[in-house]
Amino acid sequence: MRGNPDNLRQAAARKSAAAQARAEQGLREMIRRGQPITFRGLAQTAAVSLDFLYRCTEIRRRVEHLRAQQRSHPPQPATQSPDDSPSSVVRTLTAQLAELKRRHRDEVQALRQALEAAQSENLELRRRLGPRASRQTTDGVDGLVGRTT
């Protein structure tokens, strides 16, 4: 038999323990932030797979318990602490960015409508002039090309 199966078992156990520790830390972080406790949210926060969370009985029970607890006691708005100042800056900048994006969309929409109106007016004017206007324009350009001053 090649390799050492005991080493593989020990490495797998270390990997599982590290993932379990990340999951526990992720749960603490989600609770601290007041985020809803979900398996997907925890998997993303802790950088572990959904499969791992569902297979690990201890973590699965804890997530289900915390989720049930959140349903029965919705989280109260957290009081702003001095530690939250970076997140309030992020929220402020995010709100400003959203407002700028909204204004940009409105401006682009207004410009598109103005362009459509101008194109429609241009088409209407061309129709009024008829085919003779396009011949005169072409003849005028051709006449200028052949001349020398």
Given helix and strand content, the structural type is: mainly alpha
Note the run of SSEs as H and E. HHHHHH
Radius of gyration, in Å, reads: 33 Å
- Rounded mean pLDDT score: 82
Low-confidence stretches: none
- Describe the biggest sheet? none
Overall helicity = over 70%
Per the principal axes of the C-alpha atoms, what is the gross shape?
elongated
What's the assembly state of these chains?
single chain
Distance between the termini: 98 Å
Number of domains: 2
Strand content: under 5%
Number of helices: 6
Structural overview:
With 149 residues, the chain is mainly α. The protein folds into 2 domains: 63 residues; 45 residues. The protein is elongated and about 95 Å long.
Can I get a quick summary?
By secondary structure, the protein is mainly α. Helix content is 81%, strand content 0%. The protein has two domains: 12-74; 85-129.
Secondary-structure topology with pairs:
Blueprint: H1 5-33, H2 39-46, H3 50-55, H4 57-72, H5 85-129, H6 131-146
Helix pairs in contact: 1-2
